[in-house]
Design brief:
Blueprint (H helix, E strand, L loop, with lengths): L1 H14 L1 E4 L9 H13 L12 E3 L33 E8 L10 E5 H9 L4 H8 L4 E5 L4 E5 L14 H10 L7 H18 L1 E3 L6 E5 L3 E5 L12 E7 L1
Antiparallel strand pairs: 1-8, 2-10, 3-8, 3-10, 4-7, 4-9, 5-6
Helix pairs in contact: 3-4, 3-6, 5-6
Bound molecules: fe (ii) ion (FE2).
Length: about 240
Amino acid sequence: MNEMIQAIGENLARDGYHYDPCFGSNNLSLAQKRDMFVAFASKFGDMYLSENKSVIQTNPQPTAPSSMPFDRNAQIGWHNDFSTKNVRPRISMSWIVNQDPHGPMKGGWRLASARDVITVIRNMDDGVELLARLGQPIFPFGYLERGAVNHFPILEKADGDQMRFYGRALREGAQLDTLRIIAKPELLEIVQIVEEAADMVGYIKPAPQGALMVVDNTRSLHDRLPQTVEGKQPLRTALLSFVV
Ligand SMILES: [Fe+2]
């Protein structure tokens, strides 16, 4: 186990993410898997969510609210977890305990190193100016259902490799923002530039039974492809855990 933890740490430092298509153990009960996952996540640090909710178990359904994007059909889009919060988890992980019934890529992940995304932007014609702009605390992150925004930079430092990003939170934040430190057209253009940069350097990874994704939540962006949300068969179930 300790060798695995060390290898994951090395991958997080190099790429910002770790992917294992067959982490899981099929012969455990769901309760045993939850316990094992908490024990595994605890090797990386303290849990971000409080004790009785330290693991989120996804439950895809057609009526899932937008506040639970992990249960909705729609692709989530490039993001970091808890991007609207001042304090975010350092590491996020997702473990597939029941795969999407319609094939391994359904509900698969996309992963991109923040360093690679930043390099794409830096190499654009106005890249240096753009990175300086991304380092300013002017971007409104928020959700329509909550009705408020917090302003943060997208790049924690203009010359660093840590990002805060979620296209939906920024597009909805643009609608809610009353301060308008950044004009809405520029904000929407920047969101698109970051998403297209991530498209260029990101990888798609299938999410079969037992697959594990671990991300450094500031040094990478991740995404989940559309998933099945109805039918008689069991649907895609992931255990999600967050570490500070
Ligand atoms: Fe996520």
